[in-house]
Automatic annotation (TrEMBL):
It comes from Equus caballus (Horse). Residues 126-145, 255-286 are annotated as: Disordered. The lineage of its organism: Eukaryota, Metazoa, Chordata, Craniata, Vertebrata. InterPro entries: Ribosomal_uL4 (IPR002136), Ribosomal_uL4-like (IPR013005), Ribosomal_uL4_dom_sf (IPR023574). This is Large ribosomal subunit protein uL4m. Residues 1-17 form the signal peptide. GO terms for biological process: translation. The gene is MRPL4.
């Protein structure tokens, strides 16, 4: 027991003596006992204050997350045929629905390429107004120096836009990646993201792809992501080239390439837009 322990014992003894009745032992007797215990304690080595030793770790260890399973479909027929299961990375397809980050990324995508060409002329750029319209005094009218002043009709604009104006700004890479993860996770949770075994179509006619989307109720807009961007199927390229609401993009540098197609042979992602209910009524979607 060191000096710190003796001091603590003295404090406790004083507290007990304070709470006891006057008939009990006083503070002096308890203090003497504390001093005797402090004298019997072993001396502490002069190596500085000793730090407590952490015997074990009490922090919770996060268990590894399980992969998300999704059905693998086929585009070879109108029926929604399921050919197997595939595992998707949980960090990409099971992210927390941070709608605030998704909103930031959506606003950034709208504005970072936006350029406003609106431009107005100042009083120095409009035509006319070189001389004073009337003398300063004697006419009884207000004083003016030019008919192209901003307060005159046909005059210059005082604080108008002076384009071209760029609204470019860059979000941090982590925010953009997290926004993409949230979008993919929300689409998968809403059953608006489908994994297909191949983007090869039995027919290269755009009508087949349009009828397939109408039969399976994919919605008005569809995004097709090809994980094997080296050799895109010619049929899907020819079919999407004539459809304005169907976009075919390669998965180059996107987190959706983390989809593991070893189990079900997944080679593509199909992300659909707004779904339509019976008779053209809205059913949901994003």
């Amino acid at each position: 027991m060191g000096s710190g322990a003796a001091m603590l014992l003295l404090c406790r003894a004083g507290a007990r003596a304070w709470l006891r009745s006057p008939g009990c032992r006083g503070l002096s007797a308890l203090a003497e006992e504390a001093v005797k215990l402090a004298e019997k304690s072993e001396p502490v080595a002069s190596g500085g204050p000793q730090e407590p030793v952490l015997r074990r770790c009490e922090l919770p260890v996060v268990a590894p997350r399980r992969p998300v399973q999704a059905w693998v479909e086929s585009l070879r027929g109108y029926e929604q045929e399921r050919v197997g299961l595939t595992e998707l990375h949980p960090d990409v397809f099971a992210a927390a629905p941070r709608l605030d980050i998704l909103h930031q990324v959506a606003i950034w995508q709208k504005n970072f390429k936006r350029i406003s060409y609106a431009k107005t002329k100042t009083r120095a750029e409009v035509r006319g107004g070189g001389r004073k319209p009337w003398p300063q005094k004697g006419s009884g009218r207000a004083r003016h120096g030019s008919i192209r002043s901003p307060i005159w009709r046909g005059g210059g604009i005082a604080h108008g836009p002076r384009g071209p104006t760029s609204y470019y700004y860059m979000l941090p890479m982590k925010v953009r990646v997290q926004g993409l993860k949230v979008a993919l996770s929300v689409k998968l949770a809403q059953d608006d993201l489908h994994v297909v075994d191949s983007l090869e179509l039995p027919s290269a006619e755009p009508q087949y792809l349009a009828e397939l989307a109408r039969y399976r109720r994919w919605g008005d807009s569809v995004l097709l992501v090809d994980l094997e961007h080296e050799d895109m199927p010619p049929s899907i390229v020819a079919a999407t080239s004539c459809l304005k609401t169907f976009n075919l993009v390669p998965a180059i540098g996107n987190p959706e390439r983390e989809a593991d197609g070893s189990d079900g042979g997944a080679r593509g992602l199909l992300i659909r837009g707004r779904r339509r209910g019976p008779l053209g009524g809205p059913e949901g979607g994003a």
